Amino acid sequence: MRSYLIRRLIALGLSLAVASVVIFAVVELVPGDPASFMLGTGAQPDTLAALRQQLGLDQPWPLRYAAWLGGVLTGDLGQSLTYRTPVAGMILDRLQVSLPLALMALALAVALALPIGMFAAARRGRAGDTALMGATQIGVSLPNFWFAMLLVLLFAVNLRWLPAGGFPGWSNPLAALKSLILPAIALALPQAAILARVLRSALVETLGQDYIRTARAKGLSAGQALRRHALRNALIPVLTIVGMQFSFLLAGAIIVENVFYLPGLGRLIFQAITQRDLIVVQSAVLVMVAAVIIVTFLVDLAYAAVDPRLRHA
Asked: Residue 37 class from Cβ within 10 Å (0-12 exposed, 13-18 middle, 19+ buried)?
C-alpha cells in the first residue's frame, strides 16, 4: 500500500506541474491585451506602456510564469487586474458557494442513483427495470438549465417555498442552504441518471459471475448476494463517475449559476475571461484543475480500498 501511495503522490505532483505550464501557455496565447482593455481603445502609447510595466506585462513570459508559480506555491495568487483585489480572496469567496453546491448536488445524485441502480439490476429485464432505465434516459437528455427554470417556476414563483436566486451569504446558514437547494436539484438530476445507469450495468455484469452463483447456492437470497458481494465489486466504475461528476459540479455549473445568480467559481472565470483578467483566469483554472487532479487521486485511493488487488499489484 505504501508503494502504491508513493506512486500516486508522484503522479499527482507531476500532473499539477504540467497543468500549470499548460494553463499559463494557453492563457498567454489568447489574443488581446489586458492593458488595452483596461484603458480603452483611445489610450496613449506612453500611458499604455506605463500600465503594462506596472502590471508586469512587459517582462518575458518565463519570468512571468516563474513569478506566478512562486506566488501559487506560497499562497499568493496576485491581484486582479480589473478589481485590484487579491485573487486568492476572490477564489475563496466563490468557493464558499461552488463547493457546498457541488457537495449537495453530488450527495443528492448518489442518494438517488444507488437505490435506482440496485433496484433495476435486481429486476433486470422486467417492467421495473425498463421503466427506470427509460426515466434515467430522460434525465440524461434533459438540459439542466431548462430543468432549473422549471424548478424556479414551480417552487419559487408558484409555491413560494424557496428563493428564485441569489446567495445571502453564510451569516444566515438556513437562508444560504435554502438558496442552494434548487440549483443542487437541477445539477443532481442528470448526474443521478448517469450514475444509476453505470451502477446498473456494473451490477448486472457482476451478478453473472461465478462467485455470486456460489453465494446463492450457499443460501443467500438475491438481495443479500447483491448487497454483500456484487455491490462492492461493482463500485470501481461507479467511483470513476463520481469523481468526474464532482469535478464537473465544482466548476462546470456556469449556466446553472447564471440561472440562479449564484456568485460561484465558474461564473468568476466567465467574467474574468470577458474582462481579460488573465491572472484571475490562470489562478482560478489552476484551482479547478488541481481539484480535478486531487479528486482523481482520492478516487485511486478509493479503488485500492475497494479492490485489495490494487494494493498488492
From this structure: middle
The strand ranges marked E within 142-186 are none
Block residue for cell numbers 510595466: 53
Q: CA nearest 10: which of 300, 304, 311?
A: 300
Beta bridge partners of 79: 86
Q: Cα Rg for the chain, rounded, in angstroms? A: 24
Question: Looking at the domain that runs over 87-311, which CATH code has it been given?
Answer: 1.10.3720.10
Whole-number average pLDDT of the chain: 82
The rounded distance, in Å, linking the Cα atoms of 229 and 106 is 25
d(CA 253, CA 90): 18
DSSP state of 86: B
Contact 108, 192 (CB under 8 A): yes
Bridge partner list, 86: 79
Residues 6+ apart with CB under 8 A from 222: 122, 216
Digit-coded pLDDT (tens) for 212-267: 788 888 778 777 787 777 877 787 788 888 888 887 787 667 788 888 888 888 88
What are the structural domain ranges in the chain? 2-73, 87-311
Query: Where are the extended beta strands (E) located within the chain?
Result: none
Q: Could you tell me which of 107, 76, 90 has the C-alpha nearest to residue 263?
A: 90
Per DSSP, 79 falls in state B
Query: Which residues touch 7 (CB under 8 Å, ≥6 apart)?
Result: none
CA 116 to chain centre: 23
User: Which amino acid, one-letter code, is at 237?
Assistant: P
| Short-list 97, 108, 103, 101, CA closest to 188 | 108
